[in-house]
Amino acid sequence: MERESRLAGTVRPGGRTAKVRAAVLQATQDELVERGFDGLGMDQVAARAGVGKTTVYRRWGTAARLVTDLMTELAEQSAPPPDTGGIDDALRANALSVLGAVNDPRLGATFQAVIAAATCNEEAATALRAFYTRRIAEWAEVVDAAVGRGELPEGTDGPELIRAVSAPLYYRLVVTREPVDEVVAERAAARALAAARAGAFIGAPGG
Amino acid sequence: MERESRLAGTVRPGGRTAKVRAAVLQATQDELVERGFDGLGMDQVAARAGVGKTTVYRRWGTAARLVTDLMTELAEQSAPPPDTGGIDDALRANALSVLGAVNDPRLGATFQAVIAAATCNEEAATALRAFYTRRIAEWAEVVDAAVGRGELPEGTDGPELIRAVSAPLYYRLVVTREPVDEVVAERAAARALAAARAGAFIGAPGG
DNA sequence: GGCCAAACGGGACTCTCGTTCCATTAATTC
DNA sequence: GAATTAATGGAACGAGAGTCCCGTTTGGCC
Predict the structure, then answer these.
(1) DSSP code at position B205
(2) Domain extents for chain B?
(3) Helix (H, G, I), strand (E, B) or coil at A84
(4) Nearest to A28 by CA among A67, A61, A76
(5) Per residue, what are the HEC states of B123-174?
(6) For chain B, which end, N or C, has fewer CB atoms within 10 Å of the first or last residue's CB respectively?
(7) Contacts of strand C, CB cut-off 7 Å?
(8) Residue A126: is its pLDDT beyond 70?
(9) Closest CA to B207 of A141, A64, A71, A180
(10) What is the DSSP letter of A31?
C-alpha cells in the first residue's frame, strides 16, 4: 500500500517537524551501525529518536525509505572533485574518497544498508542510481579537462573511466566481500588509467 | 535463534528427504523469479513445493538460508573455463558467461537474491565469497597459461585480472543498476586486457 | 515382513510488525 | 494572542510470520 509522505520536502520546514526528521535519521544511522539493515526496526528507531512509532510509520513507512532518506541527506554533504593536478592524482583521489566512505564506520554501515535496500526496493534503487549518476558526472568533468590538456587520448569516455575506477572497490565490498584498503584503491586507479592511456575508453557512448 | 539444519549434507540421501529438498529449491527459485527476495515467504515456498511449512522452517530456518542452499546447488552445475584459444577470447568468454548468467530470467533472479541475502546475512555472504573464490581461481589458471605462452607480461596476477573483468558488470548490476549487454561485457574484457598488457596487473599479491 | 529411528505434516499457539483511532501539542495566520 | 491547521504520540487492534506439539509416514536394517 502506497503512503503519501513528503520526506525531504516538508510543508513546514524548521520547527518540530525538522527536529523529528533529524532525530529519526540520526537514530537510523546509529541503529545501522549497531545492527545492520536487516536488524533495522521502526520501533527501535522511533524509541531511540524519542519519537512515537506512529510518526515514523507515517512519514517513512518502510525501513527502505528511512535508509533512502538518510542517503539523500548524506549525499548533499559530500565534497566535490578537485580541479587541480594531473589525471593520475584525480583518479587516485576518486578511489580514495570511495575508500574513505566505505571504511568509515558510520558511512560504511549506511552504504551497505543503502545497497541492501536497493536490492529489494525499487525506490531505494532509483535514489541510489540518481546519486551515482550525479557523482559520476561530476568526476567525468575532470576527465574531460585532462583530455583537453592532452593527458588522455581524444574521445576518452569520462563517465566510463570513472565507473571503471570504483567498480573494483564495490565489487570487493558487495560481491566478494574482501577487505578494501589503500593498496586496492590505488591499484584500481592505476589500472583504469593504464587502460585509458591505451585507448580502451575511446568510443563508448556515455550514460 | 540458531537452528541446526543439515541442508546439503542430509543424513539419509536419496528418498523422501531428497525429493523434498528438490521440490523446495525449485519452488524457491520460482518464487524468486516472480516476487524477488524480499517477497520470498516460507509459507508460499512450502505451499508451492507441496510441503509442510514446518518442514521448510526445520531444514532451512530463514529465507537467506533457502537462497544460499539454492546457490550452492546451482554453483555445481556451472561450466568450467575453456582451455583453448587466446587470452582475449578467454576474457571475453568469461565476461559473456557472467552476462549470460545475470540476464537469464531464472539465474538472474537467483543472482540478485543471493546478493541481497548476502547484504544482510553472514552465512549467505560466506557462501557467496566461497563461490567466487573458487570461480576466480579456475579462470586464473587460464591467465597463467597465457602468461606461459607469452601473451601477457610475466608476473601478471591472474585472480586480479579475472576480478577486473567481472567487476564492471557487477557494478552496473548492483550499484548503478544500469542494463548489462554484450557491448558492456566485451568492453569490460577489452579494458582489463589493455591494462594487463600495459603491465598494470604485475606485482599484486594474489588472493 | 516387522522394528526402529528419522523426517514429515497439520493445527494451534505466540509474538512481532504495522495500522487505525483519537486526543494532544506545536506552528501558522490574522 | 486567539483561531486554525498540521503534525505528533499513545494505546488498542489485526494480520501474518515463526514456533511448538504430537500424530503420521517413510526409509533403513535385521
Answers:
(1) P
(2) 16-74, 81-197
(3) coil
(4) A67
(5) HHHHHHHHHHHHHHHHHHHHHHHHHHCCCCCCCECHHHHHHHHHHHHHHHHH
(6) N
(7) A 1, 3, 12-17, 41-43, 53-54, 57-58, 61-63; B 6, 10-12, 16-17, 20-21, 50-55, 58-59
(8) yes
(9) A180
(10) H
Contact (Cβ atoms closer than 8 angstroms) between residue B159 and residue B140:
yes
Q: For residue B88, count CB atoms less than 10 angstroms from its CB and return exposed for 0-12, middle for 13-18, buried for 19 or more.
A: middle
Nucleotides in D strand less than 7 A from protein CB: 6-11, 16-21, 26-28
Q: Is A202 helix (H, G, I), strand (E, B) or coil?
A: strand
> What is the CATH number that goes with domain B16-74?
1.10.10.60
Q: pTM here?
A: 0.90
| pLDDT tens profile B82-138 | 878 899 999 999 999 999 999 999 999 999 999 999 988 889 999 999 999 999 999
Superfamily of domain B81-197, CATH level 4: Tetracycline Repressor, domain 2 (1.10.357.10)
